[in-house]
Amino acid sequence: MCNACVRTMRKLLVLAGLSSSLLTAQQLPSVSVEEVAQRIAAKDTAIVLLDVRTPAEHAAGAPPGSVLIPVQELPERLSELKPFQGKQLIVYCRSGNRSARATALLREHGFNAWNMSGGILEWQRKGYPLAPPRR
Fold first, then answer.
1. For a pLDDT cut of 70, what percent of the chain falls above it?
2. Among residues 47, 91, 93, 106, which one is catalytic?
């Protein structure tokens, strides 16, 4: 089997495992968009915003200072988050579904991850600013 096929199969198996995680969305710690906006405004250095949407979704705008790692790439890119091990990772996606799966995975790997309730849709509904993506 080709290497690309093996990598794709591995990603699919990991994502399937994410959806069957022991932690349900109700059991995951969550944070409101209001609290996230307040912490950004206060320049809170104890948080890191993790966007698990697609690059195209991220390109449309994101809360200021967000780091992009699409949920399907997260299992193989966990090492990139090691510098943030002592911080609170606030994970978001469009509506909160993908970020709940990502939050569960991150918590299983020892990260202090919290799901942002309502995702970017709730962020926009509340009128909070979107910054252009980091280059």
1. 79
2. 93
